[in-house]
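Subject: mismatched residue count in predicted assembly?

I count 566 residues in my input, but I want to confirm that the predicted structure covers every chain. Input:
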Amino acid sequence: MHGDEACAEGAIAAGCRFFGGYPITPSTEIAERFAQRMPELGGVFIQMEDELGSIAAVLGASAAGARAMTATSGPGLSLMLENLGLGVMLELPCVIVDIQRGSPSTGLPTMAGQSDVMQARWGSHGDYSIIAYAPWSPQEVFDLTVLCFNMADRYRTPVLLLGDEVIGHMVERVVIPPVEEIPHWERKHPGVPPPATGVYRSFEPDPEDLIPPLPHAGEGYRVHFTGLTHDERGYPDMSADTHHALVTRLNAKIQSHAEEIIRLEEYFMDDARLVVVSFGCTARSARRAVREARAQGIPVGLLRLVSLWPFPEAVVRELGQRMDAFIVAEMNLGQVRLEVERCIGRPAWGVHHAGGEMIHPEKILTAIIAAAKNVGAPGSRKASSAGGVQISG
Amino acid sequence: MYKEIRLSGFGGQGIGLAGVLLGRAAALHGGLEAVMTQAYGPEARGGASSANLIIGDEPVDYPFVQQPDILVAMSQEAYAKFRPTAKATAQVLIDGDLVTPFPEDVVCAIPATRLAEGLGRRIVANVIMLGFFTRQTGFLSREAVEQSLTESLRSKLVPLNLKAFAAGYEYVG
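Triage response: the counts match. Full output below for your records.
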């Protein structure tokens, strides 16, 4: 199955019955599959007028209780960012799939990129935290799409799936488990009937996890939604204290659960002295490069970022204490490398390409060999101020 | 085992479908790992088209075919374009009526399109080639590919396609 098709099937398996979108290469097959499947399942597929409308429709469907998603690529995500912030502020669970292509602007519509990492993290205005996963195979597209819906519902927040054209258009075996084996985390519901009078406090956080239960439109609760800074009833409250408390909580509800959200995979890390950090399609090349380097006797491992956001700061920082060198491989000019360097406090080697072509394992192997030879030189643990050494993909 | 495979021909010959059928046979019925990629672009009916597969007994990391071990060419244009991309020692399968190979090239030929016309449907030339491929390459069982055909095609098309597959598999040049 195609990665894009696996995404639609993962969403359907997760119970998603609302897709609002605007087709864009290389994510179009997701919309196409939804357009075929939703009528069969009694769900809604709606092609909106543009990306702004798409995410607005998704937020509306979510407020009504549906598991809802949209799919796009970099340029479309740019158009969705304002309402992504609205989703964060209204705490409406939804899934936004970005099948990345060569960017900026229209870029390379039919070719791969991984340069929306920071757009996903910081694209909308204001201080907020986001959850994002980066699959490396059609199977993982399926599995992570399910996880995205579960995370969105658990943390009452938009969640991003950051795929790329290689994974979206690749055909590989996908095993779809029986429906009873698909994990399904329920949205936290008020659990109390609507109050006879007055407004239900739909933004009153559960002190345990900082996440307010979410009543759905049409269930009889009087609720109020606004993008303005609001109190626990959802009413606008233009005070600095309310604003600070709200924005702090919106961040804390994600950051304080980072350990439960973060997904990582390690390969050959047991006795590693060097580590390659990679994600998405590039991690496939990285795994092969690491295997080949191991065959040459270089003690290198691979840390694959299955989740990109929140960034696994604690893990990378800890590795920074004991690894001789870091090599970051990604199809952009250094977005994750800068995060890694922030955590380890010294330069990392970078294997970068602006996009359009998957980075070949040879390029990563070359960097591993160079890093292994240069332990003690720039890019190594002992280096302090030298700039990151880059090997252009 | 690790094989890079490029199936090629002209748009409209069902090259993409042949790739899917082959990949499914390997990954779902052949106990192997398979990945397929296709060039995305303005390929129109008639232009050279290709489906690229890597089939191996271990998970495939880098998914793109670089130097095919096996090349299937069902048109002259595709042969001329893709033969140089394949290994010099590659196993090359052609539709012998449609492709004149380079003088020094060692190829296995089958008149797939003519045989398909004999079955009344030119469109099954791709499946005839798939049968020929299965026999010539030998890494997939006949049953695995037949099962893939049976599962992937609309049921009313299955008998004709199984016949086409058999014609290719049993072809003696």
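The two ends of chain B are 27 Å apart (CA to CA). Marking this ticket as 'not a bug'.
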